[in-house]
């Protein structure tokens, strides 16, 4: 179910991106900023001070009762769009889910702050079975089987319970892929999920899908690709006996160090396996400066940088304010850049970027202006 709400217009900066250059050039930032795990109390302190707009890891501060009680209220107005394309592959192995009104989808049994929303991208490999299983069973996996926490206010306790619930959901999904006879032991999938509860944005990621937030035109990566190019992830992987060759698992056509499924690999390593299903989390408190979130499979990010994707989508939204069209245009842009993989893009808007229409005045022809001038001169000479 997709529910659109009336958006609120906010001022924006013009950002330029050279759309067909791999070394993307933008006017606001040379590279996207990356988030580390952020404490709720740190986020609140950051929002209370204009000089601390950028999100960083900081020292502990005293606990708070709720996020909303500590900062000025901003209510996201959520709209989203999505588009997927097979690209140049023989088979489509991507799946995704998009729910703008989670409370309406789940019913009165679940209690969340409003707005509440749920998004997910599942990028399958070695067959579509694992990704299709995740899409088909997502609501049960993430909400019904794990005693998903409920609350009317977002506080530290809820955040901890939310992470524990999502961690359990990813683990149980991994085990389900091992035991379901409809899923090949060779099939696996990456998974990125994003949740909005009131002003809280929570992202949980396993693999190399990516979520990127636009904050006043600047890209903020809300997830880390689990690839050997990520030094700490490669170190973790190799310490458990795994190894890469030219960016892929040696003797296997797999480029990620975390995934759901792939049990033929996990069994071959024994326990503990370096290929794990443990998600990494990043969360923040949304402000009026947070404009939209892009979620895409690795096929998007192999050909478009985080900052350039943000710049392109921001420009398109200012023209027509249509996230569905933006998602399609982003996929087409990746295809223009010679992307060969399956392609999936989701755009989640938190406010409207549509440029306000200029007031149109009355225009007079040259003949009318001359006539008016003569009339005024005659009136002045009387």
TrEMBL record:
<comment type="similarity">
    <text>Belongs to the PP2C family.</text>
</comment>
<feature type="domain" description="PPM-type phosphatase">
    <location>
        <begin position="79"/>
        <end position="350"/>
    </location>
</feature>
<keyword id="KW-0464">Manganese</keyword>
<dbReference type="GO" id="GO:0046872">
    <property type="term" value="F:metal ion binding"/>
</dbReference>
<dbReference type="InterPro" id="IPR036457">
    <property type="entry name" value="PPM-type-like_dom_sf"/>
</dbReference>
<dbReference type="InterPro" id="IPR001932">
    <property type="entry name" value="PPM-type_phosphatase-like_dom"/>
</dbReference>
<keyword id="KW-0479">Metal-binding</keyword>
<keyword id="KW-0460">Magnesium</keyword>
<keyword id="KW-0904">Protein phosphatase</keyword>
<dbReference type="Pfam" id="PF00481">
    <property type="entry name" value="PP2C"/>
</dbReference>
<dbReference type="GO" id="GO:0005634">
    <property type="term" value="C:nucleus"/>
</dbReference>
<keyword id="KW-0378">Hydrolase</keyword>
<dbReference type="GO" id="GO:0005737">
    <property type="term" value="C:cytoplasm"/>
</dbReference>
<protein>
    <recommendedName>
        <fullName>protein-serine/threonine phosphatase</fullName>
        <ecNumber>3.1.3.16</ecNumber>
    </recommendedName>
</protein>
<dbReference type="InterPro" id="IPR015655">
    <property type="entry name" value="PP2C"/>
</dbReference>
<dbReference type="GO" id="GO:0004722">
    <property type="term" value="F:protein serine/threonine phosphatase activity"/>
</dbReference>
């Amino acid at each position: 179910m997709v529910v659109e709400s009336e958006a609120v217009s906010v001022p924006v900066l013009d950002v330029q991106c050279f759309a067909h250059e791999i070394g993307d050039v933008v006017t606001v930032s040379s590279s996207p900023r990356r988030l580390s795990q952020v404490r709720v109390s740190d986020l609140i302190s950051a929002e209370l001070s204009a000089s601390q707009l950028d999100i960083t890891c900081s020292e502990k501060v005293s606990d708070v009762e709720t996020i909303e009680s500590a900062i000025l209220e901003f209510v996201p107005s959520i709209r989203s769009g999505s588009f997927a394309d097979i690209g140049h592959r023989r088979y489509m192995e991507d799946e995704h889910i998009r729910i703008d009104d989670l409370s309406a989808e789940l019913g009165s049994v679940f209690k969340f702050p409003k707005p509440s929303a749920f998004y997910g991208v599942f990028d399958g490999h070695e067959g579509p079975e694992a990704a299709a299983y995740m899409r088909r069973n997502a609501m049960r996996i993430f909400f019904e089987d794990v005693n998903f926490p409920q609350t009317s206010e977002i506080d530290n306790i809820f955040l901890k319970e939310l992470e524990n619930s999502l961690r359990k959901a990813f683990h149980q999904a991994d085990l389900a892929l091992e035991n379901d006879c409809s899923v090949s032991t060779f099939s696996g999938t990456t998974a990125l999920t994003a949740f909005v509860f009131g002003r809280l944005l929570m992202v949980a990621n396993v693999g190399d899908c990516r979520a990127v937030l636009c904050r006043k035109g600047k890209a903020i990566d809300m997830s880390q690709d689990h690839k050997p190019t990520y030094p700490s992830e490669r170190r973790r992987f190799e310490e458990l006996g795994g190894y890469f060759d030219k960016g892929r698992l040696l003797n296997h056509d797999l480029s990620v160090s975390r995934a759901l499924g792939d049990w033929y690999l996990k069994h071959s390593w024994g326990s503990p396996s370096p290929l794990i299903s443990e998600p990494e989390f990043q969360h923040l408190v949304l402000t009026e400066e947070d404009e939209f979130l892009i979620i895409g499979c690795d096929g998007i990010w192999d050909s478009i940088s985080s900052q350039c994707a943000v710049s392109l989508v921001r420009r398109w939204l200012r023209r027509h304010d249509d996230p569905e069209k933006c998602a399609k245009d982003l996929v087409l842009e990746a295809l223009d850049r010679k992307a060969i993989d399956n392609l999936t893009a989701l755009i989640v808007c938190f406010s409207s970027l549509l440029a306000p229409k200029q007031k149109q005045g009355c225009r007079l022809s040259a003949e009318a202006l001359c006539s008016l001038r003569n009339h005024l001169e005659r009136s002045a000479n009387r």
